[in-house]
Amino acid sequence: MSGDPFDEGGGTSVSILRQPKAVWATAGASVVAFMGIGLVDPILPSIAKGLEATPSQVSLLFTSYFLITAVAMLVTGFVSSRIGGRKTLLLGLALVVVFAGLSGTSHSVGELVGFRAGWGLGNALFVSTALAVIVGAAAGGSAAAILLYESALGLGMACGPLLGAVLGDASWRFPFFGTAVLMAIGFVAITAFLKEQPRPARKTALLDPIRALGHGGLASAAVSAFFYNYAFFTVLAFTPFVLDMSPYRSGAVFFAWGVLLAVFSVLVAPKLQERFGSLRVLAASLVLMALDLVVLGYGGHTAAIAGTVASGAFIGLNNTVYTELALSVSDAPRPVASAGYNFVRWFAAAAAPFLAPKIEEWSDIHIPFVVAALAALVGAAIVGVRRRALVMEAEEHLSEQTLPAAPASSTV
Description:
It is built from 16 helices and no strands. It has helices at residues 21-38, 44-50, 55-58, 60-83, 85-103, 109-137, 141-168, 174-193, 208-212, 216-243, 247-276, 278-298, 301-328, 334-362, 367-385, 387-399. Helix 6 packs antiparallel against helix 7 (141-168) and helix 11 crosses helix 13. The two termini are 24 Å apart.
C-alpha cells in the first residue's frame, strides 16, 4: 500500500490488456454508456432548432437524465444484491436500448426529455454495477480493473461528442438510433461472455446509501463533489450554446476535451497524487478549474474553445481523486458508499444544465460561468476545511483492512 491514504493499491502484475472476454464485453458496453453522456453536446443547437425549443428547454435533456440517475442510485444496490450483477447490467442495457431508440422518434422536446429520463434509469443500473463486475472478473487485481474502467470512461467521454457530430450532421435523430444499436451489441456481448457472479451475503436496503452519508468523511466528499459537478456540467451542457458551432466543429472541440479528460484521469492523476498527495491535487485542480471557467466566460470565441478543451484536464484529475476519496474514506461497503456519494453529487449534474441558461436569461452570458467558478471554489474550500479529518479517517479505515476490499460500485 502506498503512503497516500487514498491509493487503493491492488497490484497490476498482470497487464490490463490480458483480460477475460467477460471483462472486455463489460468494458466495451461501458464505453458506449459513457458516450451517451456527451452524445448530445454537438447537436444541442440542432435539437433546439429541429424541435423549436429554447436552450433552457433543451437543457432539460441533461436535467431529466441526471435527476433520474441520482434517485436511481438508491435503487441500484437494492436491485443488484437481489438479482445479481449480470441481470442488473442486462436490465440497464435493455432500458437504454429502448429509450435511446424512442428518443430518436421524438416529435417534441417534452417527449425527448421524458425518454432521456428512462435512458437515465437504464444507464444508472448499468454504470453503478459495471465496475463491480469488472473488478470481480478481471485479471491483475482491483487496481488493473479500475484502470481499465477509467480508460473506458475516458474513451466514452471522448467519443460520445464525436459520434454525436458525425451522425448528427445528417439529422439530430441519428445519434440516438446509433446509441441504441451499439448498446444492443453490448447486450449481446454480455449475454454471451459474462457469467453470473456470486451475490453479496447481505442484501442492500434502500436506505443504506442514505445511512452511509452519516459518516462525516463521506458526507464531506459528497458535498464537495456536488459543487464540483455543478461546474463540470455547466461546461458540458451550456458551453455548446456559447460556442454556437456546427455539429462537426463542436464535436471536434469536445473530442479534444474528452481526450484530455482520459489522459489526465488515467495517466497524469496517479503521478500527481503520488508526488503531491490526493487532497492537494484535488484542491489545486478545483481552483485552476475555477480560473479556467472565468476565462471561458469572459474571453472571446477562441478563448472559449481553448477553455472548454483545457477544462477536460481538470475534470479528469477531479474525477479520479473524487472516486478514490469516496471509496476510501468511510467504513461502509464500497457499493453502498458509492451509491450515497453519487446520490448527492448527481443532483448538481441535474441542476446545472437547467440553471445555467436560466441564469443567462436573468443576467448575461458571462454570469453562468462565474457561478460555476464559485461552485468549484466552494468544492475546494470544503476539501481544505475538512482535509485533516479526511486524511485521518481514510488512514484509520485503510489500516483496518486485512482482507482484499469488496468490489466497488461506480462513482462516475
